[in-house]
Design goal:
Length: 115
């Protein structure tokens, strides 16, 4: 059974930084694309960033230049480094991974940007 465990969320002031981590377990066939999504209250879930198995990255326009996604395949972990955080970045952040043709989601971690 694939499980994703996210960590690193919390409360941060505007302009601050956070690093989210998502560790996958139960992976038997390798990890394909890994990504982070977020969902703010009253809004649809949206892609923040994704990274393919070949390390090609994709970012939402709203976070370009402030966010960096990376992965450690040996540890089946994906990271999201977020800088210059804004109040509009406040949301629940979800990890997503694809493996063997299936998509899996983490439980979500809250990120709140507020003074």
């Amino acid at each position: 059974q694939v499980q994703l465990v996210e960590s690193g969320g919390g409360l941060v002031q505007p302009g601050g930084s956070l690093r989210l981590s998502c560790a996958a377990s139960g992976i038997h066939y390798g990890l394909d694309t890994m990504g982070w999504y977020r969902q703010a209250p009253g809004k649809q879930r949206e892609l923040v960033a994704a990274i393919t198995s070949g390390d090609r990255t994709d970012y939402a326009d709203s976070v370009k230049g402030r966010v960096s996604i990376s992965r450690d395949n040996a540890k089946s972990t994906v990271f999201l480094e977020m800088n210059s955080l804004k109040p509009e970045d406040t949301a629940v952040y979800y990890c997503n991974v694809w493996t063997a043709g299936y998509s899996y989601w983490g439980q979500g971690t809250q990120v709140t940007v507020s003074s």
